[in-house]
Amino acid sequence: IQEMEAFFKECPHPDDKQRKQLSRELGLEPLQVKFWFQNKRTQMKNHHERHENSHLRAENEKLRGDNLRYREALANASCPNCGGPTAIGEMSFDEHQLRLENARLREEIDRISAIAAKYVGKPVSNYPLMSPPPLPPRPLELAMGNFGGDVYGNNPTDQFKCITAPTESDKPVIIDLAVAAMEELIRMVQVDEPLWNSLVFDEEEYARTFPRGIGPKPAGFRSEASRESVVVIMNHINIVEILMDVNQWSMVFAGMVSRAMTLAVLSTGVAGNYNGALQVMTAEFQVPTPLVPTRETYFARYCKQQADGSWAVVDISLDSLQPNPPVRCRRRASGCLIQEMPNGYSKVTWVEHVEVDDRGVHDLYKHMVSTGHAFGAKRWVAILDRQCERLASVMATNISSGEVGVITNQEGRRSMLKLAERMVISFCAGVSASTAHTWTTLSGTGAEDVRVMTRKSVDDPGRPPGIVLSAATSFGIPVPPKRVFDFLRDENSRNEWDILSNGGVVQEMAHIANGRETGNCVSLLRVN
Description:
Layout: H1 2-10, H2 16-26, H3 30-75, H4 93-120, H5 139-144, H6 171-190, E1 196-197, E2 200-201, H7 203-209, E3 222-232, H8 236-244, H9 246-252, E4 257-267, E5 278-285, E6 295-305, E7 311-317, E8 329-331, E9 334-340, E10 346-356, H10 363-370, H11 377-395, H12 410-431, E11 440-443, E12 450-457, E13 466-472, H13 481-489, E14 506-513, E15 521-527
Antiparallel strand pairs: 1-2, 3-10, 4-5, 5-6, 6-7, 7-9, 8-10, 9-10, 11-12, 12-13, 14-15
């Protein structure tokens, strides 16, 4: 090794003849020598890039600090005679120099950012409305496809459209909140008693443990906190990518996320991954029924790799920076810790901690909401687990052809599962209480009201442009959910409730199993 190190200092790119001579002298294979020099060059290159990047970041931070001080000095400038604020026309020579220096610093920051981007491999975001940089299609995107449709709706009172990107002065506050939220999330994942007593959350202990944060709970709001763990069949890096890409995130959690949008990217991360990435987002969370109001939130999402190699993604509400419109839901530190497991699996521990005004929830759903089955950690990990199972089914290649009706063709399976996914998204959009659309009550009393809603269909695959009419009602029956599920999925009982198959014979032509449970499948039915 010492001889090769010495040779590398003299000649880091030996030719074939020199490599063969070295291999003879050292008793190594020529390929071993070749790969050693390749690895050495890569190590040196990475070392230089890290050193240069660290230097550039330090210089960048120094300039940003100077910039902030100059901005504060300008904002607090006062007239030396009367003590009042100075007008632009009364600007002193020193203040004028400060403005010129500020402009110079901005140019310097842009220059440093451009240089840093060359080494890191990702651009630095300087614009308030910016989506993450486009990435090549991932296996998940290929498996799930894209869903068009009327994302934002046509309701003129839609609060989702009122949210704006953060200002420059907001960004230091957002960074501080995100860092504190990350620390809080890790402790909430790792600590048991007295914070969690048999998965029951102790609010008083929380207030003592985390005095910082987003302030006291608003009057009339109720706290919801839950924690759940699951082992899923997906690589930990892929899960991080899903959570940090708003399109993938809203697609995977379509049953939970009715709409989502990235408003600003404060950091894209370093070294070609999402470590240190920070985004400002807005999202609307739903339960597939008009009787449970959606929850709109304006929050920062921060991703960080931990010292042990695990990854954490945390959300924290920014409602104090966006007082209008007033919020009905705010997220304290919520998110997940993702740990790598053998054979491509990952352990995900999810924490969901919100404060919400849930007075609009119908009595029929109050127990479901208060126990966390509607918006809690249990539902988030259940959806993730199912989607990971489904993706594994899409990518599977060892499908047995012995069973009748099983679709074994890879492209056929993928197309059918894409169609099923679009059906689920369309169904959720058609029955939720999203503020993008307005429900009108036609008839009935209480829970059994029949409600109708119209929405536009735009760029929706498989559906012509136009107006879609949805009707929904809710009712309770004294039967276990599993029995209802089995009844609805059984083709032999379908003509008892489906008017389109009434009087006919329903036959399953093909099916795709996409989960551990027997009922987790996609079926192709024919009515004779």
